[in-house]
């Protein structure tokens, strides 16, 4: 998953994969080093599961 272009909380661009001490980065987890927040992004699903993706 690509990182968001800006942090959802402060809008800064200083985003890094969020790692829990000594572990692999959690899937979809990012941290903003400007406001020191960690957050995760998750795919909820497709809007039109039966539709053609254009
Ligand atoms: Zn931030």
What does this molecule look like?
- This protein has 54 residues and is mainly β.
- The protein has one domain (1-41).
- Helix content is 0%, strand content 31%.
- The chain has no helices and three strands.
- The chain has strands at 15-19, 25-32, 37-40.
- The chain has a three-stranded antiparallel sheet, with no helix packed on it.
- A hairpin with a 5-residue loop joins strand 1 (15-19) and strand 2 (25-32).
- The two termini are 20 Å apart.
- The model has no long low-confidence stretch (mean pLDDT 87).
Main sheet summary: 3 strands, antiparallel
Secondary-structure-derived class:
mainly beta
- Contiguous runs where pLDDT drops below 50 for at least 5 residues: none
Helix/strand order: EEE
Taking all Cα atoms into account, the compactness measure Rg is 14 Å
Q: Please count the beta strands (DSSP E, at least 2 residues each).
A: 3
Number of spatially distinct domains: 1
Q: Averaging pLDDT over every residue, what do you get?
A: 87
Please bin the fraction of helical residues.
under 10%
Strand content range: 25-35%
Termini distance? 20 Å
Shape: flat
In short:
This protein is mainly beta. 0% of the residues lie in helices and 31% in strands.
List keywords for this structure.
single chain, 54 residues, mainly beta, binds zinc ion
Set out the fold topology.
Elements: E1 15-19, E2 25-32, E3 37-40
Antiparallel strand pairs: 1-2, 2-3
The structure holds zinc ion.
Zinc ion is lined by residues 7, 9-10, 12, 32, 34-35, 37.
